[in-house]
Amino acid sequence: MNANTRANVTAGSSTPCLPSGEDCNRGIKQGARRQSRPILLQDVNWGHRMSNRREMITLLGGAAAWPLIARAQQPDRMPRIIVLMGIANDLEGQERVAAFRERLQAAGWGEGSNVQIDYHWVGGDADRARSYAAEVARVKPNVILANGNAVVAALKRETQSVPIVFVLGLDPVESGLIAGLAHPGGNITGFTTFEPEMGGKWLEVLKGIAPRVTRVALIFNPATQPDYAMFVRSIERAAPSFAVEPITMPVHSVIEVEDAMAALRREGGGSFIVLPDVFTSTNVDAIVASAAQHGLPALYPFPFFARRGGVVSYGPSLTDLFRRSASYVDRILRGTKPGELPVQSPNKFELAINLKTAKALGLEIPPTLIAIADEVIE
């Protein structure tokens, strides 16, 4: 076996890494078994709407209440960053903003000493995203770090002047957020999790753990993932190569998720892929529980799905993207215009496998797949 076939890491690669041999960066999270030996790939065989405008928003290290406007009137204030997260304020969200804050501090910005940072959480609610975006835009901070498609779209409607750095899962050009990847123009730039070939990679992993699957439902909420069509097209293009029928299944509530799972179970040969979406990320426990109840194999976009009971996940490292986003916030605070900063793609991808869930579903995970996983949860 040739050492050149090992599952190594290529810095700066923007192509997902899978047993077909592509290079990528892969991170290893704590709390899972780490793969310490080189793995040879050549043997792999792959056959709410807010009820009160005075709702309290939980912050890192404390709480702050809306409206923000009164707080914005303080004279001679230090530079201000507002972090507007589309997901809930949970451990995963905290991990992402902690990575951002750590890298920002390394660039010379100390929270509370020479920069003020406010954190606000939408929790997967499209109405709340629009409301908070309007509030944030009126405050006019020095820069906004925004996560979630609905959040960024709402901010774009509210301001064309306040700098925005995004971390989100779509093609920002096709969605109309920016003019171009290399030269975004305007007040928006950032980091995208979208890869045109990701659909094929997801199907490759899914068929690797469940080769008898013939029907694959695509689960997403169109209210919080308005650009779902990009992912759907990517999967549809690859589907014939894997002999599966993709089925679009939009959902708007946990009840609809349950109905979709029940329908898949009744018709046989079913499985599903969860698209990147703040709704699905916020409701991860309900989705994973429904999949287990109906005995459905599934592919999830991020490792925290596998850590919380999903059978397998494959996708870009969101923590890494948030860490990298601090460099753009730093440059903007120092005078660079957002439109001069090119949009960047992910260069670190993670494969996580939950063996306990696989056993419960009656799935035999190939040892070669386990060998190249970044996380193996037992």
Give me the Rg, rounded: 21 Å
CATH architecture of the largest domain: 3-Layer(aba) Sandwich
What overall geometry do the principal axes of the alpha carbons give? elongated
Number of domains: 2
Description:
This protein has 378 residues and is α/β, with parallel strands linked by helices. The chain has two domains: 56-192 and 318-340, Response regulator (Rossmann fold); 195-316 and 349-377, Response regulator (Rossmann fold), CATH 3.40.50. The chain is 34% helix and 18% strand. The protein has twelve helices and 14 strands. The strands form three sheets. It has a seven-stranded mixed β-sheet with strand order 9-8-10-11-12-13-14, with helices on both faces. It has a five-stranded parallel β-sheet with strand order 4-3-5-6-7, sandwiched between helices. Strand 1 (56-59) and strand 2 (62-65) form a beta hairpin. Helix 4 packs across helix 5 and helix 6 runs parallel beside helix 8 (284-294). It is elongated and about 60 Å long. The model is unreliable at 1-75 (pLDDT under 50).
